[in-house]
Design a protein that fits this description.
about 500 residues, single chain, alpha/beta, 15 helices, 6-stranded parallel β-sheet
């Protein structure tokens, strides 16, 4: 007896066939192995020898056909197994978003297609007349009796320590050699025709402080209002301002009253603001502009998270009497000043008071952050770098960098009316367990670099990242302006969106 066996793979059910052909005795044995089970079928032919020979020939042909099919199926299965069945996320181009420094890169990674890498945004910084930069530092010093007569190079003057130092740090950053700015989301270009954005390095907040908007007397002294008018006149003469009506210009205006006299003439630009408390909806919004942090005035807390050395429950030190939304401060003083474990003091900006505030924040579990004259105040950022959990009482506040920072993970928000109820605030804080305080401190520690203007990958880089994200809107508005007929209207246009007018939810009610 001659027996032949054919191995094959079923394309329908994944099983194997074993076909035994015993032609001499007219028996066909078919063994089927399906899903691990062996089945045999025996067929005996009762035909004549002649028919048997024909049958044997047909069976040999069948053997050959089955062999060919089996070889094809095996080869096809082998090829398919070497290819992915579908595209998985790991097969797609990958981009690293670990911190703002990795968001933009000069050179693509080897595995990334070159055309998918985000380019750095190109920024041209105007070489402003010195009266808008170092000249303002000089005037500030003269107004305080620190500089009687400046006969030397004013560019040697240093910006005075202040909560509005953002404008100095951004100016200084663009003045650094490009090799020292590795990892920044932007690159400075020296040819304005190559620029995506134009930075106007006016020290607008310091100018306001130097003279508080009062006009100069008898041609002597300094006038912030005159500086504002002169600045805009200079800008409006620049061809790059005229090209897009200033949409692609970035102007610092951190103090709520900075550039107040000319705001309607620069409102098309990207404004760097602390909040929108003094801006109309058609002048500023978080869609068009960038909310920036005040520069912290107290020292960084370098210790570890913990409450053992923080014996004060709640701390505040600042000006008790403010205007507008800041009137809540005086009411909070009345509610809290006699509470046990609460320190709430009136104090203005001075070196001695800053030392006292530093000590108070570093030794307290919670730091009170009521509104100032406008919704934001510098003490929020002082408390963050102190790892003192912020208790924010400011219903219309807007906060920096909320696309990457969730403030509810390290701050407590209390609606103003609730906070003014006698006993409500301190009782709520006393109920917060130690482990929760530690959790808030750890989260605060992980994000506080965003509020440090001296830190690598800190506030400066994050502001530039936020500014860079405005570029698509800037292009949209610039192109739109070329076709839209100018109309006299005070209604907000599509570049603006109302800021927070809904108030805050008390954290414990969330």
């Amino acid at each position: 007896m001659v027996e032949q066996t054919i191995h094959g793979v079923s394309s329908s059910n994944g099983g194997r066939y074993l076909l035994h052909a015993a032609s001499e005795i007219g028996v066909v044995e078919e063994e089927i192995i399906v899903s691990g089970h062996r089945r045999r079928h025996h067929h005996r032919d009762s035909i004549s020898p002649t028919m048997a020979r024909k049958s044997s020939l047909l069976k040999k042909v069948a053997v050959i056909v089955f062999s060919v099919i089996a070889i094809y199926v095996l080869l096809n299965a082998s090829v398919n197994s070497s290819l992915p069945s579908q595209t998985s996320p790991s097969d797609l181009p990958r981009f690293s978003f670990s911190g703002s420094r990795q968001l933009f890169r000069d050179e693509p990674d080897e595995e990334e297609p070159k055309d998918l890498v985000f380019p750095r945004v190109r920024v041209y910084m105007y070489d402003l007349p010195k009266k808008f930069t170092y000249g303002i530092i000089e005037q500030h010093a003269i107004a305080r009796g620190g500089l009687k007569d400046s006969t030397g190079d004013v560019s040697e003057l240093k910006y005075p320590g202040h909560q509005h130092m953002h404008e100095w740090y951004l100016f200084s950053d663009l003045n650094r050699p490009e090799k020292d700015r590795s990892g920044s989301p932007i690159v400075r270009v020296m040819d304005p025709s190559e620029a995506d954005l134009f930075y106007v390095p006016v020290l607008s907040s310091l100018s306001l402080i130097a003279n508080a908007g009062r006009p100069a007397e008898s041609g002597s002294g300094y006038s912030d209002e005159e500086m504002q008018e002169s600045l805009v006149e200079w800008l409006e003469e620049q061809q790059w301002w005229k090209r897009n009506n200033g949409h692609d210009h970035v102007i610092p205006a951190g103090d709520p009253n900075a550039l107040y006299r000319v705001m309607d003439r620069v409102k098309s630009s990207v404004l760097l603001v602390a909040d929108f408390g003094r801006l109309r909806p058609d002048q500023g919004s978080f869609v068009k502009d960038v909310v920036i942090p005040y520069s912290h005035r107290v020292s960084f807390f370098n210790g570890e998270t913990g409450v053992d050395e923080r014996n004060t429950l709640l701390f505040f030190m600042g000006n008790r009497y403010r205007k507008d939304g800041g009137k809540v401060r005086d009411l909070l003083f009345q509610v809290l000043e006699n509470e046990e474990d609460v320190i709430i003091k009136h104090g203005t900006q001075s070196r001695e008071n800053r030392r006292a505030a530093t000590k108070g924040m570093h030794t307290s579990k919670f730091c009170l952050n009521p509104a100032g004259d406008t919704p934001s105040a510098c003490r929020l950022f002082d408390s963050i770098v102190s790892l003192c959990v912020p208790v924010i009482i400011s219903d219309s506040i807007e906060l920096p960098f909320e696309d990457v920072i969730d403030y509810t993970k390290f701050a407590i928000f209390v609606e103003s009316n609730s906070a003014l109820q006698p006993g409500f605030l301190v009782q709520m804080l006393r109920r917060i367990e130690t482990e929760k305080i530690l959790e808030l401190q750890r989260e605060m520690k992980s994000v506080r670099r965003y509020y440090d203007y001296t830190s690598r990958n800190g506030a400066v880089d994050e502001i530039w990242r936020q500014v860079s994200k405005k570029l698509p809107l800037i292009k949209l508005m610039s192109n739109r302006d070329r076709r839209v007929v100018l109309r006299n209207s005070t209604a907000p246009d599509c570049s603006c969106l109302c800021s927070n007018q809904t108030g805050a939810i008390t954290s414990t009610e969330q």
